[in-house]
Automatic annotation (TrEMBL):
<dbReference type="InterPro" id="IPR043129">
    <property type="entry name" value="ATPase_NBD"/>
</dbReference>
<protein>
    <recommendedName>
        <fullName>Actin-like ATPase domain-containing protein</fullName>
    </recommendedName>
</protein>
Amino acid sequence: MQLPNNTPNRKPYDGSVRKLVIAFDIGTTFSGVSYAILDPGEVPETQPVTSFPAQAKVGGSAKIPSIVCYDKEGKVRAVGSEAEEPAFIEQAEDEGFVTVSWFKLHLRPESLKLEFDFPALPKNKTPLMVFSDFLRYLFECTKSYIQKANGTLVWNSVQPNIDFILAHPNGWEIAQQAQMRRAAIIAGLVSEAESQERVHFVTEGEASLHFCIQRKIPLEKDIGIIIVDAGGGTVDLSAYCQTAMGSFEEIVTSRCIGQGSVSSMTISLEKLKNSRFGSEQDVQLIASIFDAEAKHTFRKSEDSVYVKFGTFRDRDPSVDIKSGQLKLPGCVVETFFEPSIKAIIQAVKEQRSEATTSIGV
């Protein structure tokens, strides 16, 4: 596979009319969107969407939780950060709403084995339905963001001419791409007739390579590199080499392993099952908050980590929950990372041994 030499010195857009490209990175636990307005003769600039409803820090984050909340009739009631607001969580509990997370894993190919159990979908929802609901929400947020950042006139000028890019794990195949394309149609992003021309796909490995190039990370010719994309549900590994002509080629088959960051945390929360915080929904929430916030505070095994997920009234000392936060000993948190680290190291060793070009360290 040959990749274009997409150097930091991008060329001006050579199209004849203005268009918009929107890229969606829908992850197991978090998702983000970026876009570029292409004007004829101008060098395109990629911009992230950094403002979503209910974000604690508006403009400070380019991602939201990959969650969708439905009422009993199956209607979407909240998505992303909106579903994690304390007032909404209380309403959801009172009215019996169902929060769906990790839905992306339901689309994976059967060949991709995961080392952990993950929540089932509601009986009245398919993976395609949830994926399309989430995609529709991201598109509406992007539309609103572009209108505020660039003006309604700019949006109106590009609305008839939008291309969409969907990133997916390395291990996903044509069948998964077909489902994602169908989700874009159901979400109203494109018509079925236009979907083949306007919906495009990129593996997360290729996207990571281009990110490295744009950030001017030194890449030597004839020396292979391995890119490890350690996500929430899966870990993707890709190996490339820059040729004498300046393009990039894959030097070993890409890998996708089911040892993402949520796996060990979920397994370790088994102790909550006998407490009033042991429901599937509570465990998902705690795992997601740990992944987004608490894990970044971990430094050494001697220090405890606190996962704040509830209110002051939420407590169960038998499982170290007080004032709405779960206390985790540092030595336990340390074990969360161990399975993923071991799996990644083993996968890197295998990539190096199988590569057709020498890969440096």
